[in-house]
Amino acid sequence: MSDGKTNTASGLNEVEREFLEYVSSLNGAGLKDLTDRYIRLRARLKFDTKKYRNFCMDSLDLHELFYGQDDEKNILEVYRRHEFMIAMRFISYSFSLDRLPKRRLSHSLKRLIGREVPPDRSKTQRESYADRARLLAGKLGSDPVVVDYGCGFAYQSLQIAELYPAARTVLVDVDTINLRFAEHRFKKRGYDAETLPVTEDNLYPALPRHNVCIATEVMEHVKSPLTVFENINRSLEVGGMLYGDFGDHHAETYHVSHNLKGLREAMGGDYELIARHTYKRVR
Questions:
Q1: What angle do CA 79, 83, 87 make, to 5 degrees?
Q2: Cα four-point dihedral sign 154, 130, 210, 231
Q3: Contact 214/171 with Cβ under 8 angstroms?
Q4: For the chain, what are the domain ranges?
Q5: Does pLDDT of 72 surpass 80?
Q6: CATH code linked to domain 125-281
């Protein structure tokens, strides 16, 4: 996965270049002009900073004033109206793929008191994606069928496809440019991928049989996380792998279901925790 490799001539990495090429193919804008405008915006808005995230949150809060969060179709519409803003956040995740994570005092303190800390801080994000891909798909004994639920730009599932080219991937997310671009990245590399768009008429799409499910940072963003889990549970093979953070989250506009206790209870004894955020379906 070469997403983070930077082109010194343009200052853009592969994800940025591919995204701009894709947008250019959609709107007919000249690639050079589009790239120049993007570089100016990136420098001004700093997509990978807390300031930009807060800017996104403020815009979502403003829209919530008019749409509210009680109706799931309203939530979907707000995400749709912010698809390009959210795309810049997804792009920013590629900026740090080859950087070592910062060492934080809070992590050292957690180690001292025996609390869980994030994975090996001596590895880059790219290396962590590769390790996780092997954990999720490397011992299945057959070609993986991967459902990436709430896929964004599908960084993790694309890494699985790069290590296991015969993998079949199903990408699930709100029907926006981000889902279509994720599919484009797979198809460009010759990997088998299809999309299941979340739409007003199909808020919780049924899933195909699969043996790997990536559902990280998605359950807190949907109104009915139990419905998502039930769809996964109906179609995930026994012995299959489920990856996701199902802990509670702080309440905010993005987190419409910040308490995931019901989901954890629904998992019951059917899933065995084998690594951080990684579960094996045992029955």
A1: 125
A2: negative
A3: no
A4: 11-96, 125-281
A5: yes
A6: 3.40.50.150
